Amino acid sequence: MLLSYPIQNILFLDIETVPQQPAYEQLGEEWKTLWEAKANILLRNREGETPESIYERAGIYAEFGKIVCISCGVMQGVENNRKLVIKSFADDDEKQLLKNFTEMLIKWSCNEPRFLCAHNGKEFDFPYICRRLIINGMPIPPLLNMVGKKPWEVNHLDTMELWKFGDFKSFTSLNLLAHTLGIPTPKDDIDGSMVGDVYWKENDLSRIVTYCQKDVVTVAQIFLRLQGEELLGSDSVEIKS
Fold this sequence. Notes:
Blueprint: E1 10-19, H1 29-42, E2 65-78, E3 81-90, H2 94-108, E4 115-118, H3 125-135, E5 156-158, H4 159-164, H5 174-180, H6 195-200, H7 205-226, E6 237-240
Parallel strand pairs: 1-4, 3-6, 4-5
Antiparallel strand pairs: 1-2, 2-3
Helix pairs in contact: 5-7
């Protein structure tokens, strides 16, 4: 069992990101040049691929992507009678999405110590949100802002980091960790690599939201398992509009 955290003071979250344009050809000339410079680094020692062919990966970089969904979950109730309440912020207008999310986050975290938890959140979700806030000319909420804080003052939890137990050599995916810990995960019709196409080609944001919400449930379940607590039942998740 890990150090105990007040589970009702944790916001579990996951984000979904896409490239800023549907295809490489639709980038402006300067953006093409900048992406090619980035892609050439990614393509070292890899034959048969080009900056154009890997543009679908642009969404994982905050400079070339944008957030289309942030799903959040908080625990309510006590052990053996808990439920995870989930709310999603999704919008084609990233600035509006971030405004709605940060307003909620500031309100939720204003009175007592609160924590954020995501899988690989310290390497991806948390910094990505902060970078996109800066790009959109928006302030970073105190709970996300690490500037000037000592490590123990940053209330960010990461299920992948917790699972590493100090080992920094490996990456463990959310699905792999869930399966390893015996946590059932829903069989989705999409995975992370397909989010860009679902957004740009199918124009199906609601499908992405559903996928994102399921990942939040999995993150929360993994955290419970790492804490040595009972998992949520199949009827213990509430989706708020």
